[in-house]
Amino acid sequence: MVGTLINVVTVAAGSLLGMLLKSKIPPGFSRTVFQVMGLFTMFMGIDMALKTDNVLVLVLSLLIGSLIGYALKLEERCESLITRFTIKEGEKSKRFTEGLLSAFMMFCVGSMTVLGCLEEGMSGKRELLVTKSIMDFFSSSVLASAFGKGVFFSVIPLLVYQGLLTMGASFLSPVLNEAMSGAITAAGGIMLLALGINILEIRKLQVLSMLPALLVAPALMYAMQWLA
């Protein structure tokens, strides 16, 4: 839960800073920060993926997981949800709610949120959530400068959502052996690499559709160990 608490603090701090600065944050500043974060996300992804001892499980889990995600239309459903809560200009009476929902979608609907919570819940490590927290600090500053205190109050659903994910992962950790956890880490690494490509706007990859691979990877590793 420490990683989530750090995330909550950074979003709150970023929101307060954004409300103080309002529209004075230059677009070039945010763009530069996200370029650095995109490169760092790719680095972390490569580092995690290279730790795998079974490339076949990695490839199969990503392939099968992506096909499941495509069949479930995960990417399309999430994009539809985000679009539904897109801010509409001129509706000041809805500014608080729209700011809160937009912030929640930005901070919680993504692969780094899931991967970070799984990492902390299963191993106690929180590097991903700390990296996400830094990114969310700047994102919340930009959002709050435009949409006000609704972004600040998004820390409440953020705390609940990420807290539940982390606790759920901690309950699963005793069931997973080292090889199964490693399979999840490697699959998550490829997703982070894809996320970095998206952040840098090199190409739009359907990272959310890959999320079922996080369930497929340990299942495949268990099956291979049982058959061996």
Could you explain how this protein is built, in words?
The protein is mainly alpha-helical. It has one domain (2-18, 27-227). Helices cover 78% and strands 0% of the residues. The chain has eleven helices and no strands. The chain has helices at residues 2-21, 27-49, 55-71, 74-84, 95-108, 111-123, 127-147, 149-152, 155-172, 178-199, 213-227. The longest helix is centred in the first third of the chain and has 23 residues, at 27-49. It is elongated. Mean pLDDT is 83; it is low at 87-91.
Name its key features.
elongated; single chain; 228 residues
Produce the secondary structure layout:
Blueprint: H1 2-21, H2 27-49, H3 55-71, H4 74-84, H5 95-108, H6 111-123, H7 127-147, H8 149-152, H9 155-172, H10 178-199, H11 213-227
Q: Using the alpha-carbon principal axes, give the shape.
A: elongated
The percentage helix is over 70%
Number of helices: 11
Strand content: under 5%
Secondary-structure class: mainly alpha
Largest sheet, in brief, is: none
| Mean pLDDT level | 83
Kindly report how far apart the N and C termini lie. Answer: 37 Å
Rg estimate, integer Å? 18 Å
Series of secondary-structure elements, N-terminal to C-terminal: HHHHHHHHHHH
Number of E-type strands: 0
Summed up, the domain count is: 1
Residue runs with pLDDT of under 50 for 5 or more positions = 87-91
